Amino acid sequence: MYINEWYVMAQSEELTDRPLQVKALGQKFALFRDSNGNAHCLANVCVHRGGSLSSGKIKGDCLQCPYHGLQYDGDGICRFIPTLPEGAKIPERAKVDAYPVDERYGLIFAFLGDLPEAERTPILEAPEWGQDGWRTFNLLYHWHANLEVVTENSLDATHAEFAHTATSQEGQFRLGDRASIEMLDYDWGNSYVIRSGSLDLTQGHHGISQTFGYMNFEMKTADGTEPGDFRFYAYATPVDEYSVRRYLLHARNFYLGEENDKQLLKGVWQFEKEDRVLLEDTRPLLAPNPDTRQLLLTEDQIIAQYRDFVSQRQQAGWRIDTERVNATREQTVYAIPSPARRESTGWITEEIPRIRPSA
Question: Which ranges in the chain are annotated with CATH 2.102.10.10?
Fold first, then answer.
């Protein structure tokens, strides 16, 4: 698992007038809305005596710890300690990590890392959302699979012939006489297009955890055929090493009437179910490493490029040392570092350990 990514923490409708506990990167976070309805994301553990902030109450623009009543604002700064004498100064160390939040597409994103804004990979855009001529949906799936394994599956077109038999044809992606692959330039990751008959499928990854797919095809109509577009934007959040929440934004520019939703979404749900069952039984459970023995074929160029991309993030020191975290979690509280750690000192909660880059 990696820091310094935008991860979806919840759907907008989940965060109401009460705090919400969310787990990501193996850690717990507290989400809440202030008096203006703005969403905030804090590390969940109070620095006083370890209370769970997400179990507390919202007091104006602050989140109150349920244990001793300390109140933290959306920037993670403690603004009130009930036992302090009137006029007494609140200790500067009374603070928790607070993470940048961006709410769009009916989703609440948080940047879980310490990079300054100018250096962050932006959120994958879904320009069809809310636009005329498009029908869009936001779906949520829970998979018992590793994030990188799930992402690689999202980049894999050729498994459709075998995993999604209802919508694929035998030999549809046979390279040479039936299909071709072209790798594409993409600023925030890697991308490719596979062409097979009347189908053009463009897929790619944006950062480590976000993927996209554009499916252009010819639809049969009463008058012949007409072009259609399916577009998918997937935002995967690692709950821990072995499970993810996958938020899928689905858009189409055909059959726009509401009466078509049920049948079309049934197919999308079926796709996800087939992939989930497949991946939960795939081995190894964790993402392949350089010592993993696998045969990569021509159509797996995108997989090889994604693995190189991920290894660069590890070399940057962004990979969480899960072995150390798991070995010490009963005695040590860790926090994903926030941008504020680059600007101030005196943090009580220990920064989550990460794997050191190799020499």
Answer: 5-119
Instruction: Note if the pTM is more than 0.85.
Output: yes
- Element (DSSP H or E) covering residue 262: helix 261-280
Q: Looking at the domain covering 135-311, what would its CATH class be? A: alpha beta
**What distance lies between CA 11 and its chain's CA centroid?**
12
CA distance 91 to 81: 10
8 Å CB contact between 24 and 38: no
Joined together, the tokens standing for residue 287 give: 């993402």
CB 191 within 8 A of CB 338: no
pLDDT tens, position by position, for the chain (359 residues)? 999 999 999 999 999 999 999 999 999 999 999 999 999 999 999 999 999 999 999 999 999 999 999 999 999 999 999 999 998 999 999 999 999 999 999 999 999 999 999 999 999 999 999 999 999 999 999 999 999 999 999 999 888 888 887 766 666 777 877 789 999 999 999 999 998 877 889 999 999 999 999 988 776 666 666 778 989 999 999 999 999 999 999 999 988 888 888 888 888 888 888 999 999 998 888 887 766 788 888 889 999 999 999 999 999 999 999 999 999 999 999 999 999 999 999 999 999 999 998 86
Dihedrals phi, psi of 89, to nearest 5 degrees:
-80, 135
User: Could you tell me the CATH superfamily of domain 5-119?
Assistant: Rieske [2Fe-2S] iron-sulphur domain (2.102.10.10)
356 is written with which tokens?
A: 């050191």
Q: Which of 246, 239, 215 is nearest to 153 (CA)?
A: 246
| Residue in 106, 103, 144, 127 with CA at minimum distance from that of residue 247 | 106
CA-wise closest residue to 358 among 322, 317, 320: 317
Which segments within 55-167 are labelled E, that is strand? 57-59, 62-64, 71-73, 78-80, 98-99, 101-104, 107-112, 135-143
